[in-house]
């Protein structure tokens, strides 16, 4: 009996040793792996005990602050809905997105470069205090952008062409970040996708707004000049297909400047085929197409522009026949672009051909008022020669002064721009307007797109641009 | 040093560790020591001092480890419950008081466990009845039918049935072990004992399966089956019973996985919890995240992240089935392994008592109780760490729950009685031997 009992006891010992081995496996070997699982919201929940840093606008007004309730901090939004798709959410249940996710280490005081006091706190095992993040977003401009989009679907991006600082980023439809948790089920299933940050995630057919890129490639390679003459018969037959103008218009003899002013498809189709597939796509790549714009946001929250197929972004080397090239030169075919990318195109032209890296963080300030990080504008790409940029600048002024974009014109401020109207198969249009102002010393560059409309870019998007420019240039300070 | 003085030293040690844990919770969560809870702490100390004094009078030569281990585990449990849900700690304290009363009653009424052997069929029938009652009028909690509601309390009769069945089996198997180990005939070359000896055991086996199907609880079925198989093996030393028991239970378990949806869910979650992260696998994954977060030393009692901002525990049922998760989180790997080793220490003492016991009934009783204690601890610790499929049994002395703590205190009283008798027979004083003889 004793022998059998010893054996049973040995089995018990083996089982208990298995428990110890398994505990070691979970708590030491795999501990970090468990910590990093997306299903694990413990770190978010724990960080509710840290006073999360404020997110403030360029004028210092609080966009996302904190409210303390029984030892835990909750986000509150004293100025209401303010670029919620870009700011992102901070939810124990649904995780984090946008800037809240990207700058979480700074906002929770866990980053390594938050000053001496923060370092001392960590060393002493004290709970850190979050650093405040000051954005380049200018609340007055953002507010106008959001107002302009009210009741519409679309996006507005405004940036400083000389620095790349994001001045406004509006996405419609929008949502109130204050009651996100309660409305999550509705919002996440809404077919109009209010949670989507359209400026960086929305892929749209750029339409005629893309003609700026085609023109840039044409002028840069010397294949055309602003005065190169063309003749439009209303139809350009190529490779067994044809390119026609918007509304069936026939313009007769024109030059390249007038072709941009009136947005003549046949002329741009011809320029596209003069350039050929390689030079056209290369011209787009010089503005940032086929790359993810370096705006620091979590993976998937900024998407690249370019030609898209069924399985996502196509290679820049993908085959195109001359008809494809002709339509692509007019911003159609398989081209898709984000509003951010189109704003970067306008910004590149405005900044003498140099595209700046887009950013939104003006500075990071520790709780004791020390500025630990300040925005350093950096050049991203050289899109075109300075001469080409200045020729395009003049041509885009013409669009506003005497072409499709006259609704964007303002008293005393020279605006430069390009309209776009992409017809979707379902009978609705995408209305575009991209541009910058003032033309001789650009302070703002922008891209505006409105979905699901019967109007053209010139009718609908250009007046919005005028309202935004007016507000932006009236501000005491821009980033 | 005498056994009782040794026990007192261990009790003081356990008390010191418990006090530190308690203070840690307080300073961590309330930043000040509340006078009322010090009184509760003193009542807790008083209970174990009383049990110790009772042993000095009635069980002078009982094992000196078991009561201090019980006190330590109960203190850890109470402290952790207090930290998770202060209101429940008070209730648990009352249950501890009730358990101590039952402990005292057991010692005073039974006096000598050998008496229990005389009533083995009655005790076995009571155990069976408790299980049948649960199956008939039980309520389902978390998918398993383990509870009955009576007199305003929720009782888990299986905790008491466990003790009754062990007593019955110890007596029955000791009596029939020769018949069971000498096969009367062979079926397909396998030696099979006569049915009249084997019959009651078949009832036990069917009972385990019934628990699996009707109570929908894999854990309890596994516990009863383990008690049954290990006692059979210890009584007869025939491995064929182990093989048969494990085989039959494996078949029954496999069928249950397909037939009983609740068992099926648990099994699927055990195999791969990730696809069920927000549904049936939520609890287990949260438990694993919470344990993984403990690290090597843990944040300390009262300092881990166990409650959300709305005071809900991070793992549902944290204070009952998942109390080990809370301990692992706050005490880290060292503390968690320490608790596992404390359980193993208890199991070791149990088997030691069994090995030294002078008669078959005492041996099987002690070994059966130790097995029950070991298997129950293993099932729940293994369950919350995903070593085995999760099933809802309590962690003895630590989990919140009245039935669990009272039944397990009776278990301790029985083990102490066996060891007291053994030690007196093997070397107690004449006076002690005379007392023992009077009791019998």
What does this structure look like?
The complex is a heterodimer of chains A (479) and B (440). Chain A is 37% helix and 22% strand. With 479 residues, chain A is α+β, with helices and mostly antiparallel strands. Chain A has a domain at 141-359 and 376-473: 3-Layer(aba) Sandwich (Beta-lactamase). Chain A has a 6-stranded mixed beta sheet, with no helix packed on it. A 5-stranded antiparallel beta sheet of chain A has the order 8-7-22-21-20. In chain A, helix 8 (139-149) packs antiparallel against helix 17 and helix 11 (211-220) packs across helix 13. The radius of gyration of chain A is 27 Å and the shape is elongated. Chain A starts with a helix and ends in a 6-residue tail after the last helix. By secondary structure, chain B is mainly alpha-helical. Chain B has one domain (3-114, 201-439). Chain B has 16 helices and 5 strands. In chain B, helix 6 (120-137) packs across helix 7 and helix 9 runs antiparallel to helix 10 (239-259). The longest helix of chain B is centred in the last third of the chain and has 34 residues, at 323-356. Chain B is globular, with a radius of gyration of 22 Å. The two termini of chain B are 28 Å apart. In chain B, 52% of the residues are buried. The mean pLDDT of chain B is 86. At the A-B interface, helix 1, helix 2 and helix 3 of A face helix 9, helix 12, helix 13 and helix 14 of B.
């Amino acid at each position: 009996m004793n022998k059998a009992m010893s054996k049973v006891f040995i089995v018990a010992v083996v089982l208990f040793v298995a428990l110890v081995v398994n505990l070691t496996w979970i708590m030491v070997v795999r501990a970090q792996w468990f910590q990093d699982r997306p299903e694990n919201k413990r770190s978010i929940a724990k960080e509710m005990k840290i006073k999360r840093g404020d997110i403030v606008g360029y004028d210092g007004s609080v966009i996302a602050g904190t409210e303390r309730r029984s030892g835990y901090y909750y986000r509150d939004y004293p100025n209401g809905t303010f670029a919620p798709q870009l700011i992102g959410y901070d939810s124990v249940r649904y995780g984090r997105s946008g800037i809240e996710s990207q700058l979480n280490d700074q906002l929770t005081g866990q980053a390594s470069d938050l000053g001496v006091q923060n370092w001392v706190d960590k060393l002493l095992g004290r709970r850190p205090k979050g650093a405040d993040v000051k954005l380049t977003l200018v609340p007055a401009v953002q507010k106008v952008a959001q107002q302009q989009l009210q009741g519409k679907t679309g996006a507005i991006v405004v940036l400083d062409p000389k620095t790349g600082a994001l001045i406004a980023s509006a996405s419609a439809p929008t949502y109130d970040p204050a009651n996100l948790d309660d409305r999550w089920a509705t919002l996440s299933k809404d077919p109009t996708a209010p949670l989507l940050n359209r400026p960086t995630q929305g892929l749209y057919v750029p339409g005629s707004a893309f003609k700026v890129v085609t023109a840039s490639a044409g002028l840069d390679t010397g294949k055309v000049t602003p005065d190169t003459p063309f003749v439009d018969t209303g139809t350009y037959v190529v490779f067994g297909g044809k390119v026609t103008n918007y509304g069936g218009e026939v313009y007769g003899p024109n030059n390249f400047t007038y072709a941009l002013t009136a947005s003549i498809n046949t002329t741009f189709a011809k320029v596209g085929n003069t350039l050929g597939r390689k030079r056209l796509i290369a011209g787009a790549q010089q503005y940032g197409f086929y790359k993810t714009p370096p705006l620091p946001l979590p993976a998937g929250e900024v998407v690249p522009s370019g030609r898209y197929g069924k399985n996502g972004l196509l290679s820049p080397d993908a085959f195109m026949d001359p008809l494809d090239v002709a339509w692509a030169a007019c911003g159609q075919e398989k081209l898709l672009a984000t509003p951010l990318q189109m704003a970067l195109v306008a910004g590149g032209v405005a900044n003498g051909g140099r595209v700046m890296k887009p950013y939104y963080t003006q500075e990071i300030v520790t709780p004791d008022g020390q500025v630990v990080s300040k925005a350093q504008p950096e050049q991203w790409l050289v899109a075109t020669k300075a001469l080409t940029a200045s020729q395009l600048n003049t041509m885009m002024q013409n669009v506003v002064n005497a072409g499709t974009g006259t609704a964007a014109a303002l008293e005393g401020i020279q605006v430069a721009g390009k309209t776009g109207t992409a017809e979707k198969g379902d009978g609705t249009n995408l209305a575009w307007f991209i541009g910058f102002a003032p033309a001789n010393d650009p302070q703002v560059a922008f891209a505006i797109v409105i979905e699901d409309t019967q109007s053209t870019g010139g009718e609908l998007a250009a007046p919005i641009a005028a309202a935004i420019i007016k507000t932006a240039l009236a501000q005491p300070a821009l980033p | 040093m005498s056994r009782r003085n040794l026990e007192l030293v261990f009790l003081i040690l356990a008390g010191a560790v418990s006090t530190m844990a308690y203070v840690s919770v307080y300073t961590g969560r309330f930043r000040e020591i509340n006078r009322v809870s010090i009184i509760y702490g003193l009542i807790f100390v008083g209970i174990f001092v009383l049990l110790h004094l009772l042993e000095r009078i009635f069980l002078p030569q009982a094992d000196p480890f078991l009561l201090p281990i019980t006190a330590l585990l109960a203190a850890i449990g109470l402290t952790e419950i207090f930290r998770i849900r202060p209101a429940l700690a008070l209730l648990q304290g009352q249950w501890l008081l009730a358990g101590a009363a039952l402990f005292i009653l057991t010692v005073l009424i039974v006096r000598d466990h050998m008496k229990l052997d005389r009533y083995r069929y009655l005790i076995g029938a009571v155990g069976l009845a408790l299980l049948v009652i649960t199956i008939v009028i039980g309520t389902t909690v978390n998918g398993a039918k383990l509870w009955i509601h009576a007199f305003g309390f929720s009782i888990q009769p299986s905790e008491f049935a466990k003790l009754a069945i062990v007593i019955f089996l110890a007596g029955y198997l000791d009596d029939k072990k020769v018949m069971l180990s000498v096969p009367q005939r062979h079926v397909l070359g396998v030696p099979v004992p006569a049915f009249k000896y084997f019959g009651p055991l078949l009832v036990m086996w069917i009972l385990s399966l019934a628990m699996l199907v009707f109570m929908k609880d894999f854990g309890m079925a596994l516990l009863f089956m383990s008690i049954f198989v290990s006692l059979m093996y210890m009584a007869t030393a025939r491995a064929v019973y182990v093989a048969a028991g494990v085989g039959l239970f494996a078949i029954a378990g496999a069928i249950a996985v397909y037939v009983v949806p609740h068992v099926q869910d648990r099994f699927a979650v055990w195999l791969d919890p990730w696809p069920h992260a927000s549904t049936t696998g939520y609890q287990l994954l949260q438990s694993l995240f919470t344990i993984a977060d403990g690290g090597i030393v843990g944040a300390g009692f009262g300092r881990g992240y166990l409650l959300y901002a709305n005071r809900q525990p991070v793992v549902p049922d944290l204070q009952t089935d998942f109390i080990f998760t809370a301990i692992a989180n706050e005490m880290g790997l060292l503390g968690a392994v320490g608790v596992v080793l404390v359980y193993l220490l208890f199991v070791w003492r149990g088997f030691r008592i069994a090995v030294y016991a002078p008669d078959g009934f005492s041996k099987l009783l002690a070994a059966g109780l130790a097995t029950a204690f070991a298997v129950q601890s293993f099932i729940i610790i293994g369950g919350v760490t995903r070593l085995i499929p999760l099933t809802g049994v309590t962690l003895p002395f630590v989990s919140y729950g009245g039935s669990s703590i009272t039944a397990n205190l009776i278990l301790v009283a029985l083990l102490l009685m066996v060891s007291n008798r053994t030690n007196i027979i093997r070397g107690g004083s004449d006076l002690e031997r005379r007392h023992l003889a009077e009791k019998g």
